[in-house]
Amino acid sequence: MATVIGFLGLGHMGGPMAANLVRAGYEVVAFDPAPAARDQARADGATVADTAAAAVAQAEVVLTMLPNGRVVLDVYRDVLAAAAPGTLFVDCSTIDVADARQAAELAVAAGHRALDAPVSGGVSGAAAGTLTFMVGGAADDFAAALPLLEVLGGKVVHCGGAGVGQAAKICNNLMLGISMIGLSEALVLGEKLGLRHDEFFDVVSTASGQCWALTSYCPVPGPVPTSPANHDYRPGFATVLMTKDLGLAANALRDNGVDGRLGLLAAELYDRFNRTAADKDFSAIVTDIRTRSGEEQE
Ligand code: NAD
User: Reduced to 3 states, what is the DSSP secondary structure of residue 186?
Assistant: First the structure.
């Protein structure tokens, strides 16, 4: 008999993930308060439950893909008592490390097992089943979840105990936010000094300033034809999501007494940019730096 998966949160990410599980032969019982998300899940072959609690009642594994930590904790409090003892809860949302640890504690206290398993790879990775999973929790629970996560992801890494999957996610995005700003400042400085983008790319892509933000995701049009800069900064990875992740990273820096000045500043700069450009790709921060530098690009 097929493993029954409870799936809560069928948005941009969760919807295609649930569909991939159905395609792989799992029986998916899903819930989302949004009617359109429920209709899509039904069309994709999932069974749609009337409530979140009903969706988890028959499940061996429950996946959650929810907007933030508050919703994850609310949903856990709502459904834990309805699940069969020993159900494996796998939260794939991006949330605070502290919230992830609290969610795991709630699940364990209710007689269940829990993993945090945030992802990178975005909506296209969710649809293609090529997400990267960063997993926190016990080794045997990781082993139990692995076959299922491998349906959804191209790479699945056990990072450590509860919350450490979220730690990996925010550490990566902290570095990405800082490096995108650093690269963008250098590009704008280069513009002012007469250094053209193609030559900047030619030199830096093989010099010590080389980074993913430049060689895979160049924030100005031209050098990397697939980057969002070539398509009016359509995401990609939207500024609103980078701002959220840097907010989580800033919380973690403060909570853990890390003197992360660049991280806090990156969070502040994205928070400000997000007020006018939430739906633009996060690499559009280069346009903000250019504007704040008092000059439009020629
Ligand atoms: P989304 O807003 O599209 O989806 C969230 C879904 O959760 C919505 O459909 C909403 O109706 C549902 N929901 C809200 N309350 C619920 C409840 N009580 N029970 C069940 N469902 C509920 O967001 P998304 O883009 O799918 O992102 C989901 C998570 O994945 C977020 O934590 C986000 O940070 C993370 N993430 C997103 C991306 C991306 O590119 N979109 C990439 C990596 C990680």
Answer: helix
